[in-house]
Amino acid sequence: xxxxxxxxxxxxxxxxxxxxxxxxxxxxxxxxxxxxxxxxxxxxxxxxxxxxxxxxxxxxxxxxxxxxxxxxxxxxxxxxxxxxxxxxxxxxxxxxxxxxxxxxxxxxxxxxxxxxxxxxxxxxxxxxxxxxxxxxxxxxxxxxxxxxxxxxxxxxxxx
Length: 159
Known about the structure:
Layout: H1 8-35, H2 42-63, H3 72-76, H4 79-114, H5 125-129, H6 131-151
Helix pairs in contact: 1-2, 2-6, 4-6
């Protein structure tokens, strides 16, 4: 049986974000063509959805071992040092994602407390920021899964 890692919730979220971005952009183009003006909310929502799409896609890539890395050293190391390198790579990635999650959550909480509003539509800013710590925490989980699979030899160093 071939092992096939998956990140279905992130794939659905990324697909939905891309579909909504496409619909918003199409609606804006049609509105601009017909009326000469544009829809006010399109840029704010499109930027927000693009961030969601980016983090969801990065999470899928982590789970599928699709991120770019240099595997030359990894391929030429014996099993013991190779496993140590995999662990080191995982710890470095977990540190970065942990910091993004922590500071993203802190920023989201501050924006909630300050009752900051978005500049375009006047919506609570934390609605947009909440996705940063949630999706970076999801990436942290996917990273742990990927490192564990690589550690066990279920994934090669090349996707």
